[in-house]
Write a structure and sequence with these properties.
The chain has 159 residues and is mainly alpha-helical. The protein has a domain at 122-159. The protein has helices spanning 3-7, 19-41, 47-58, 65-72, 76-88, 110-121, 123-133, 139-157, and strands at residues 92-96, 104-108. A two-stranded antiparallel sheet has the order 1-2. Helix 4 (65-72) crosses helix 5. It is globular, with a radius of gyration of 19 Å. The mean pLDDT is 88.
């Protein structure tokens, strides 16, 4: 594949870069661009803070910081900083675990639930954005991409 032609960027030269290195760079650049766009979309919180809230809600029970760090794929320290900011904004609270008082469990607050409901009501705009991001990508390609990244994730965990 001619990356120079496909990327349509005249200020860089990809040359004979191996596809693995190109894909990792492409994922990183996409992540940065997506984060900037999502930060502009949500005024009250950043994309990373919103992602933390999504991950909290995906957990079967209120997670600990370590459990949330695993789900988010981020360090304990980074997740702790995100949670501190969310706590200051009134979006999350921590409560001691009922079985082990040394553990702190993270829950979303009523303010956060209201925020999520309000932004879900703006779902047409977010659906439009998601639709634009995935325009022209068929279901088979999407499934292949998901499987590839999941395999990369498993391989990464074995390092």
């Amino acid at each position: 594949m001619d990356y120079d032609k496909e990327m349509n960027m005249d200020k860089v030269v990809f040359g004979d870069m191996p596809p693995q290195a190109f894909l990792l760079g492409l994922l990183s650049a996409f992540d940065n661009r997506y984060q900037a766009a999502a930060d502009a979309f949500f005024r009250e919180i950043t994309w990373k803070q919103f992602f933390a809230v999504i991950c909290i809600n995906l957990c079967k029970e209120a997670p600990t910081i370590n459990e949330l760090s695993d789900v988010m794929g981020s360090s304990h320290q980074n997740v702790k900083q995100i949670l501190l900011k969310l706590e200051k904004k009134g979006f999350v609270s921590t409560v001691p675990d009922e079985k082990d008082r040394r553990k702190q469990r993270i829950s979303v607050t009523d303010k956060c639930r209201a925020f999520l409901e309000q932004n879900d009501n703006n779902g047409q705009q977010s659906q439009y954005i998601i639709g634009r991001i995935f325009a022209g990508i068929d279901e088979k390609s999407l499934q292949t991409t998901i499987q590839t990244i999941m395999k990369m994730e498993r391989n990464l965990s074995e390092l």
